[in-house]
Amino acid sequence: MSYEGELTKISLAVDLAGLKLRSPIMNASGVLGISIPLLKRVYNSGTGAVITKSIGPLSRPGHPNPTMVHVEGGVLNSMGLPNPGVDYFSIEVKELSDAGVPVIASFFASTIDEFTDSSIKLERAGARALELNLSCPNVSGESGMCATDPYTTEKVTAAVKSVTKLPLFVKLSPNVTDIIPIAKAAEFGGADAITVTNTLKGMAIDIDFKKPILSNVTGGLSGPALKPVALRYVWEIYEAVKIPIIGCGGINNWRDAVEYLLAGSTALEVGTAIMTHGFEIFNEINEGISQYMVENKFNDLKEMIGLAHKS
Ligand code: RRO
User: Fold this and answer.
1) Residue 55 main-chain phi, psi, to 5 deg
2) Which of 23, 37, 81, 169 has the least C-beta neighbours within 10 A?
3) Sheet holding 68-71: strands in order across?
């Protein structure tokens, strides 16, 4: 199989808000996203692009351990945005991008100036698109979790959009009463696509120690248990906005990927399944979608996007 051209016997190429991808599948931010050799492996395993761990203006150690626990149907994480800071990480983005890997830089910040400053640095480093993480569930107020409020979502999106030429994707939170006004606010602010969704806030208790397992008490749930929730959001947002959607949440195999495409996703992010299936998951999903397209007589991925809304 050649990774330079087509990945499967039928083309899986998509145009995601001007970003041409050889496959709609990408790794979700956070999983393997700081290690450059691992991100190269992700791309060589058949993704359309790679997405970095969310990068902040300054380095952060994240929360103390334990920061991850397996629960039925998925994983809870409370990493707490550990990252090396945008100045250091820009060097890594440049290395990856110089090696021919299309990089989508995920980032967060606390102030408008920090958001715009980071986006300029990441664009200069060679990122091909930006994913604005407004939805980390593991920090309170000071960083990240602004996608619970339409006004802030629009304001931050518009500010970043005004300083970058790159396609801008805004990652939303499932931890809201009504996601539609927030998706519309992102679109109104100039987002080129919406990533749906980040993790769902939850917790687990150790019954022997009689204490919460995670040091931060709560964490974000990812994995198969998140899929029906995120899929419903993709469905609803598809009917409410005109910009493309990147489906993210519990994609565990090619069938899940096809569901997300039929619900209205143009591209997809796979996270927790990398931990359970290894790098081979990307190739398996590419092959499965390709086979499904042949069997269902689809010539172009576009024919599948949102098709379930028409039947
Ligand atoms: O680092 C984290 O705790 C984290 C982030 Br930035 C995020 O966006 N989503 C998540 O579940 N964890």
Assistant:
1) -105, 135
2) 37
3) 68-71, 74-77, 218-222, 200-203
Helical residues (DSSP H) of 103-250, grouped into ranges: 112-124, 150-161, 180-188, 227-240
**pLDDT confidence of residue 141:** 59
Q: Please identify every residue annotated as catalytic.
A: 136
Radius of gyration of the chain (CA): 18
pLDDT range class, residue 5, cuts 50, 70, 90: low
Distance (angstroms) between ligand 1 centre and the Cα of 297 equals: 39
DSSP 83: B
User: What whole-number distance in Å separates Cα of residue 265 and Cα of residue 306?
Assistant: 7
DSSP H or E stretch at residue 77: strand 74-77
pTM higher than 0.85: yes
Give 46-61 pLDDT, tens digit per residue. 999 999 999 999 999 9
- Nearest residue (CA) to ligand 1, atom 11: 220
d(CA 215, CA 282): 32
Ligand 1 atom with the smallest distance to the CA of 108 is: 6
Give the pair of three-digit tokens for residue 241. 């906005």
Mind listing the domains of the chain with CATH numbers? 4-63+81-201+225-305 (3.20.20.70)
| Residue 54 Cα: closest atom of ligand 1 | 6
Nearest-atom number in ligand 1 for the CA of 83 is 1
